[in-house]
Design goal:
alpha+beta; GIY-YIG endonuclease; four-stranded antiparallel sheet
Length: about 180
């Protein structure tokens, strides 16, 4: 796929697709296809992360994370429902807001993934409803587009393919929370 095509699709995702709350995603889930796709999360604050001027901004929110899915509906619901064990995005946000939201970390599953106690997951979900919006599109080759978006915009909550100070900071916060 040509870079100009990727740029056009990324522009559509980041600037034109409707922004939805996690509550809207849950309510309208049947309208979200169970096919591959890509999504972009926008936030009302930068979560204390360094951001640069090239990050898209819409409706008073800033783009901080992109992700891909083999089944778009299922993946978006993973981010919106009350479990950080299956959402890298929720784990990162939770670590950044641990003190503010009073979250207690725990590990879950065989792979000891970071998650938060039940009340903390609920508080995190409430924070996401109030402070985050997501745009999404079905796309047959989401990994290619995700890599392009990360390379061109450097969304600070993306850890993979986004080496740098912010990545190191998020990885350390997660390690600290897992060890707590």
């Amino acid at each position: 796929m040509q870079s100009s095509e990727l740029e056009q699709i990324a522009h559509h995702l980041l600037n034109e697709r409707p922004l939805q709350t996690s509550a809207e995603i849950r309510a309208l889930q049947q309208a979200i296809p169970m096919e591959p796709g890509i999504y972009a999360w926008f936030f009302a604050s930068t979560l204390g992360l360094p951001v640069h001027d090239e990050l898209p901004r819409r409706d008073g929110m800033v783009f901080l994370y992109t992700g891909i899915a083999t089944r778009l509906r299922k993946r978006l619901l993973n981010h919106c429902n009350n479990s950080s064990g299956s959402s890298s995005l929720r784990r990162s946000i939770g670590c950044l807001l641990m003190n503010e939201l009073g979250l207690q970390a725990r590990t879950t599953g065989v792979r000891r993934k970071l998650a938060f106690e039940r009340q903390g997951e609920l508080a995190l979900s409430e924070w996401i409803v109030a402070n985050a919006r997501v745009a999404w599109i079905p796309f047959t080759e989401p990994g290619i587009l995700e890599s392009w978006i990360i390379q061109h915009y450097r969304p600070p909550l993306n850890i993979q393919e986004n080496a740098g100070e912010t990545q190191s900071h998020l990885m350390q916060l997660r390690a600290d929370a897992r060890g707590a």
